[in-house]
Amino acid sequence: MAQAYFSIQIRQVAGYLKFSDLSINYRAMLMNTRYLGNARLKVSALGLGCMGFTQSYPPYISDDEAIKVIRLAFEMGVTLFDTAEVYGPCTNELLLGKALAPFRDDVVIATKFGFDLSQGNDADGPNGRAIGLSSRPESIRKAVEGSLQRLGTDHIDLYYQHRVDPAVPIEDVAGTLGDLITEGKVIHWGLSEASEETIRRAHAVQPLAAVQSEYSMWYRQPEEKILPALRELGIGFVPFSPLGKAILTGRFDAKATFDASDFRSQIARFSPDNLRQNLQLVDYLKLLAVKKNSPPAQIALSWLLAQYDGIVPIPGTKQIGRLKENLASTDVELTTDELADIRNTLNRLDIVGERYPESQEKLTQK
């Protein structure tokens, strides 16, 4: 009771003061924190995925507006910010480095390496995405230097291999990251969209702090092998697209269409026929939202947080209203019975269509 009362008092204080007037200690009290695995990397319970500021989901906002959103996220307690060399490419890191410069030492910056930007994209136009991979030691070292420069920092807190390179043994990648950690250029490392076998092999050489993969009510494949392995090994899990590329916010209906510049236009799950069936999940989520008096996105994020205490979702948004809504999900509690009902319902619902275009799905491991 005393702890709850203290929390209320802190929130009341925040109501009278600007977040920028609060010390870092007070900011931390306004957002729950978690640890990523045995690495004990302390971060906010929700991070901010920053890709959408420069890629995949137009319309984009100006850099000045994006910086305001990023800094507000920090003022509201977010300490984990996720970017990648390939986003833009490179422009996303530049934006994030500028936004976080005033409080660099108080946040965890996660970025990624592993795409060979010299090999071009899988399609022309705004949705063209890199398809070439390179995780040779020399490529990793070149990538880390570029990221450090763009981010305006001397170290990367969490450095992911963005996609596993089949041409380079994962043990060699882990060894290179171990050297970078020894040199102080990288503090922790992780993998993205890697298989259970690759995770185990990498972790045996240089312990992983986190694994990043898509995971949500909309895409649950990590539950089969990845999540059990992460629990066993003591590795954190950072789900991207935790709101199913915005489908779980409830903003789309059966009439929704997506411009060619929007990445969702290339995803089979969002095609008109598939979307009509997949909206059954959204309809169920909306019913839960009414029952809990919370927006659908908060239910979806709260459900994710309940799956594993080492989970830290990174929803992305360009809108301040959505940011505040997402962060408030840490205050939504789902009972044991509610979680059981959600799981039973999800098991009955069929989500149809692939979650990536074929060229991108080929780059992931199962």
Defining key terms:
366 residues; seven-stranded parallel sheet; globular; disordered N terminus; single chain; two-stranded antiparallel sheet; NADP_OxRdtase_dom; 9 strands
3D architecture notes:
Keywords: Oxidoreductase. Pfam families: Aldo_ket_red. This is Aryl-alcohol dehydrogenase-like predicted oxidoreductase. InterPro entries: Aldo-Keto_reductase (IPR050791), NAD(P)_OxRdtase_dom_sf (IPR036812), NADP_OxRdtase_dom (IPR023210). With 366 residues, the chain is an alpha/beta fold. Helix content is 40%, strand content 11%. Helix 3 crosses helix 4 and helix 9 packs across helix 10. The protein is globular, with a radius of gyration of 20 Å. The relative contact order is 0.13. The N terminus is likely disordered.
Q: Report the biggest beta sheet as strand number plus sense, adding barrel if it closes.
A: 7 strands, parallel
Shape estimate = globular
| Count of individual helical segments | 13
Radius of gyration: 20 Å
Secondary structure tally: strands: 9
Q: Roughly how many Å apart are the termini? A: 45 Å
List segments where confidence is low: pLDDT < 50 over at least 5 consecutive residues: 1-26
Strand order of the largest sheet: 3-4-5-6-7-8-9
Helix and strand composition category: alpha/beta
Keywords: Oxidoreductase
Organism: Winslowiella toletana
Domain NADP-dependent oxidoreductase: 46-344
Protein name: Aryl-alcohol dehydrogenase-like predicted oxidoreductase
